[in-house]
Amino acid sequence: MENEKPEPLWLEKKNTNNMGDKFRSLYESNFLMIAGAHDPMAALLARKAGFKAIYLSGAALTASLGLPDLGVLTMGELVDRTRAITRASGLPLVVDGDTGYGEAINVMRLIHELEDAGAAAIQLEDQILPKKCGHLNGKKLATPEDMAAKIAAARQARSHLVIIARTDAAASEGIDAAIERAKLYVEAGADIVFPEALPSPEDFRKFSEALSVPIFGNMTEFGRTPQMNSDEFIKLGVDMVIWPVSSMRIAAKAVESFYETLMQDGSAKAALPDMQTRAELYDTIRYFDYEALDSRIKKTVLPHVGEK
């Protein structure tokens, strides 16, 4: 038909994923602690501990692949891990989208892929490639206008996804300039502002007082920001905080220690007290619930206690 409207472009279609709304309800009602979860098992354990939302760090995901956090991760790798984590945990997941994997139209593609994969929120940062961890030196920044264009594209493409604008400008341009950037990003459509690598607790207060949107804090270890607890962040006006790489660091250190023990002893026996037992593992992944879905599978009986 001549007057028939064309189908919307794929990048313009809306997604029915409502995880973004669930995430909003969490941070709008209470201060939110968000555990970093670099894989589905970590996500399940975070949920078991009582966390209501989780975070997929680009740095943690990249490290889990044996690579440095220099922008070498692909969009496909990020989306695949997002899908695996959301499928396993069912929790609202904040995804580190780094610099958006390109320019405005690439950001729109990323938004759709993440919503399809079940994400609740995306974090976009104002670095350019090759990017670095926010707590390191030598970061190169996009112009405020270019970053704002990416935020606007994300806003146009999203259905429910919460948009978190991260600025790395404090280290090189100063707090006042970083706040001005953040204001521009909010005008472009950011729902939350993430000021990265702030060296002083009072810097968080400056952001919270200057902006009307929620403030997102990062409590990574071994960085520029001093270690603080949730009560201290609340007093500074911060609305939510991530511990992005902590669980991966803990896991990596434990595995490193175990391999040293195994190589030295020729046996894993000394490490048994540090291990999750077979019963605990099966409880975490709901092994028996899955088994019950198919009556043809004979119900598993766990081995003798000493063989768990």
Structure write-up:
By secondary structure, this protein is α/β, with parallel strands linked by helices. It has two domains: 14-244, Phosphoenolpyruvate-binding domains (TIM Barrel); 276-308, no CATH class. The chain contains 13 helices and eight strands. The chain has helices spanning 19-29, 40-49, 58-64, 75-89, 104-116, 144-157, 170-173, 175-188, 201-210, 230-235, 246-265, 278-284, 287-291, and strands spanning 32-36, 54-56, 93-96, 121-125, 162-167, 192-195, 216-218, 240-243. The chain has an eight-stranded parallel beta sheet with strand order 6-5-4-3-2-1-8-7. The longest helix has 20 residues, at 246-265. The chain is globular, with a radius of gyration of 21 Å. The chain starts with 18 loop residues before the first helix and ends in a 17-residue tail after the last helix. The model has no long low-confidence stretch (mean pLDDT 94).
- Strand tally is 8
Q: Which strand order spans the largest sheet, edge to edge or round the barrel?
A: 6-5-4-3-2-1-8-7
Please identify the top-level CATH class of the largest domain. Alpha Beta
Low-confidence stretches: none
Helix content: 40-55%
State the order of secondary-structure elements, H for helix, E for strand. HEHEHHEHEHEHHEHEHEHHH
How is the CATH topology of the largest domain named?
Answer: TIM Barrel
Amount of beta strand:
5-15%
- Quote the average pLDDT: 94
* Tally of DSSP helical segments: 13
Which value, in Å, is the CA radius of gyration? Answer: 21 Å
Total tally of structural domains: 2
Overall morphology: globular
CATH architecture of the largest domain: Alpha-Beta Barrel
Largest sheet, in brief, is: 8 strands, parallel
What class would the helix/strand composition place it in?
A: alpha/beta
| Full CATH superfamily name of the largest domain | Phosphoenolpyruvate-binding domains
User: What is the terminal separation in angstroms?
Assistant: 68 Å
